[in-house]
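Run log // design_07
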């Protein structure tokens, strides 16, 4: 049985069979229909992504491993009815729905019009947000991640890093979110890597060399200077200078703390016999702290440069 992130399987003790508990709202289904079909043929509104004819819709589902036939029905109602069937199939365990979502978000379908691909991801994420999921692009391929571990801060980081021209940032945040419950040690390691990746990315965007010491402490310090976030800056208004310096110094402390947690409790250096596992709450805290720090760095970079980070357009 195929399983993915949406696999939320329970077990019926009476009949001894799996029960689908995929926690997605009808709003997600509507978003999928809108994006798959491109809307009604009579609708003058431009499609969010690709307008698909009946045969193209059937081929899309076939590419997702699903056999769908429109027959004599209209495109939009037939697609809606078919997705409802997939939605309610107890044996599917959410894997087919996940394949459909990822199939729609694949940027390789929009190489000639990348803005369409971004519009599709934005539409899907708007529908998925309340259910605790998000689509992100890693290595030119879509992945579904959970937002629950990080809340609003990490959700903002997901949206911001969709604009970063560096795969490592997307990969680290995806890894952190997907590991927090099942492998909190790996989530802590990924949270540390997220900060390092964002710092590296910003330094490269600023055309600055990487520091001799490339650990989290060295990279954070290297970014603080050019971004005007150094605790030693002297151009602050007198009435808030001490407070702002304390906050800026706290950025370094947070980064050091996450780096130390990675060293002592993460999985970067292996695990010895009798290793005591990190509580998932601690991993969640590390992800939130890393998310707050990286979001602040990214937004400071954007404000300084008077532009958003570059939109990535990648081939397969």
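design_07 sequence
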């Amino acid at each position: 049985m195929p399983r993915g992130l949406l696999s939320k399987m329970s077990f019926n003790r009476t009949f001894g069979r799996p029960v689908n508990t995929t926690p997605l709202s009808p709003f997600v289904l509507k978003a999928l229909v809108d994006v798959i079909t491109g809307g009604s043929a009579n609708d003058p509104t431009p499609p969010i992504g690709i307008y698909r004819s009946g045969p193209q819709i059937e081929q899309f589902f076939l590419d997702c491993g699903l056999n769908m036939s429109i027959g004599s029905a209209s495109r939009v109602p037939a697609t809606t009815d078919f997705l409802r069937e997939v939605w309610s199939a107890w044996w599917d365990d959410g894997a087919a729905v996940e394949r459909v979502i990822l199939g729609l978000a694949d940027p390789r379908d929009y190489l000639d019009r990348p803005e369409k691909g971004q519009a599709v991801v934005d539409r899907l994420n708007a529908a998925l947000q309340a259910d605790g999921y998000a689509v992100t692009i890693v290595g030119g391929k879509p992945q579904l991640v959970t937002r629950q571990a990080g809340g609003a801060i990490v959700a903002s980081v997901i949206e911001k890093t969709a604009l970063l021209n560096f795969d490592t940032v997307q990969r680290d945040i995806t890894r952190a979110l997907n590991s927090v419950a099942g492998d909190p040690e790996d989530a802590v390691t990924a949270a540390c890597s997220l900060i390092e990746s964002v710092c590296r990315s910003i330094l490269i965007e600023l055309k600055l060399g990487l520091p001799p010491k490339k650990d989290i402490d060295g990279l954070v310090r290297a970014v603080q200077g050019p971004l005007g976030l150094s605790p030693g800056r002297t151009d602050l208004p007198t009435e808030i200078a001490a407070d702002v310096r304390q906050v800026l110094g706290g950025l370094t402390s947070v980064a050091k703390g996450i780096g130390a947690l990675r060293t002592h409790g993460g999985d970067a250096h292996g695990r010895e016999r009798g290793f005591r596992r990190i509580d998932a709450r601690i991993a969640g805290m590390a992800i939130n702290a890393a998310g707050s720090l990286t979001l602040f760095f990214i937004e400071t970079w954007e404000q300084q440069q008077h532009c958003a980070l570059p939109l990535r357009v990648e081939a397969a």
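The radius of gyration is 22 Å.
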